[in-house]
């Protein structure tokens, strides 16, 4: 497989690697960076692939943080028929093959809906949903998924984002049994765009997501 730093055009200071992860109907293209026990799995949007998350993974994978990015089935070089549930379960199991303290499932847009719907049952330690639509094909709707979520839950969006429903996501967090459960809609853009300011600098939300992966599940921004 092509080294992710070469493929995505972003070098890393921490060790990185690429592999194929067997799932139903084939395998997933997976890349990781860092060696820590605090693991984040980053799920891309419907308009992206693992390179969408790679710049963040390269920047965040320091100290005790290890990041895993993936081409979901039907994206990039991944060739598989696994459902989102099967993919997330395989990714969490893969993350736990090495000694881990926690596994935080982070998804943007489509990936956020999948993270919220599948993270609890897959054995994730926490869920971060960035602008996930309240419904996405056969995935459990956001309010239902949040209501059954008991692990830490962070949902962020822009209050003016027409590609999701801020009011529905806020209601979902209010109904959730997650501890902590935190909602913010004071952002700009959609999905991963919320992590970078107009002048190209990391936003406070980017710092918050990185902190959640590292185990600091604060509920302020």
UniProtKB/TrEMBL annotation:
Keywords linked to the UniProt accession: Hydrolase
Protein name: Alpha/beta hydrolase family protein
Gene Ontology terms for molecular function: hydrolase activity
